[in-house]
Amino acid sequence: IRSVLLFEETLPRQFVVQAEKIKEDYENFLSLYQWKIPLKTNYILLMGFLSLLIIFAALWVSLKISNWISVPIQKLAYATEQIARGDLDVRVELKRDDEIGMLVDSFNRMVRELKEIKLSLENAYLESDRRRVCFENIVENIDSGVVSVDEQGRVVTVNSTACRILGLKAGDLVNRGYEEVFNYIESEELRQYVKGIRLSEFGSATKQFDVKIGGQMRVLKFFISNLKDVQGHSLGLLVVFEDITELLKAQQALAWQEVARRMAHEIKNPLTPIKLSAERILKKWRRGDDDIGAVVEGATNTIIKEVEQLQRMVNEFSRLGRLPQIKKTVTRIEQIIEELKHIYRDFEQRISFEIDGSIPEVMLDRDQIKRALMNLIDNAVAATNGDENILIRVNYSENSKQLIVVVADNGIGVKEEDRDKLFLPYFSRKKGGTGLGLAIVHKIITDHGGEITVEDNQPKGTIFTIKLPV
């Protein structure tokens, strides 16, 4: 330094104060600037700590919320798996007032109801199984044959009695078509009847058929019923049948015993006046009475009258005994009615015929049905006088599959107490009657598997109704 220049100037006080303040502020700045990095570091650390704290708090809260929701769901899922394995005693223990609590309560209620339903079903199954076993034992041990057929015509059930009657084993028929039955039963009438059954229209029926089983003629009585569910849909047929061959033989033996007893009684009745008349003639002849001629004439007339009565009775008895075996053929009932019209043409003013034109052909014995109708018409003619009428009406019932023949008159009628005896042999209220006419009619109709009933006509008279299966 060669030289120094000094100069001095007096500055204003204000300026100096400001300069000192600036200097002081600068020094403060320098002092504070030294704290910049430490403060920044501390701030960063504090913010990082607070951020971590907030994150951890959020995670804790989210975990709590997740557990609050997921744990009940997991319990429900586990309980569902237990139920799927069949454990209906499982329960989800959780008491909450929110939607999850409502869901758990509903789940527990559902499980409780499922358990009750399961117990109910188990009890119902046990009861059903008990009834099934009981029913099977009953079916297996009854004296009637039982065969059930489903809606496709396959045999479902065959009991031991049916096997015994038909001479087969259950395995020969079960799960096979019902047509297989006719390999063991020979009956065209039964075959045609079964073929004519329509499940949609059929209800039930009781029929009697003459069949051949193993080369022997048997009489089987069938009860056939259409099995239906609660909606009325057909499930198939139940066929119950029994062999009544021996029963019919026993009934016939008893019937003939009764006929013989009644015959002996009826023969005794005319024998008494014949004996008395003969004794009177002998007595008069021995004494030589003058009126022996008149006595002989009167007694002879009595004897002749009683002998004629005996002859009529014997003739009727012969007719009853000579009734041939039923021989059914396809017949049109209209042809029989036309023949009856011709036979009773002298009574055309009193007898009228009504025929339903929609009558199908019928399997019956033409001659015997004609004889039965003639007996009924003869009785009606005898019960009416010249101004009283007789109606023969023939129609066909589609519902019951029956031919219905009605013989109605407005004559003297039948007493109430006599109705149950009308068809018994030798019962008659008609003077000179043998009591065999209606017995013959009844036998013919029942041999055809039909029935005959009697009721009052209105305002008077009698109605005989014949129902024959078609």
Could you walk me through the main structural features you see in this protein, from its secondary elements to its overall organization?
- The structure is a single chain.
- The protein is rod-shaped.
- The strands form 3 sheets. It has a 5-stranded antiparallel sheet. The chain has a 5-stranded mixed sheet with strand order 7-9-10-12-11, covered by helices on one side. Strands 6-8 form a two-stranded antiparallel ribbon.
- It has helices at 13-33, 36-84, 99-141, 160-166, 188-195, 245-287, 292-321, 333-343, 366-383, 437-447; strands spanning 145-150, 155-158, 204-213, 216-228, 234-243, 329-331, 351-355, 362-364, 390-397, 402-409, 451-456, 462-469.
- By secondary structure, it is of the alpha+beta class.
- Among the domains are: 142-243, Beta-Lactamase; 248-321, Helix Hairpins (Orthogonal Bundle), CATH 1.10.287; 329-469, Histidine kinase-like ATPase, C-terminal domain (Heat Shock Protein 90).
- A hairpin with a 4-residue loop joins strand 1 and strand 2.
- Helix 6 (245-287) runs antiparallel to helix 7 (292-321) and helix 8 crosses helix 9 (366-383).
Topology at a glance:
Layout: H1 13-33, H2 36-84, H3 99-141, E1 145-150, E2 155-158, H4 160-166, H5 188-195, E3 204-213, E4 216-228, E5 234-243, H6 245-287, H7 292-321, E6 329-331, H8 333-343, E7 351-355, E8 362-364, H9 366-383, E9 390-397, E10 402-409, H10 437-447, E11 451-456, E12 462-469
Parallel strand pairs: 7-9
Antiparallel strand pairs: 1-2, 1-5, 3-4, 4-5, 6-8, 9-10, 10-12, 11-12
Helix pairs in contact: 2-3, 6-7, 8-9, 9-10
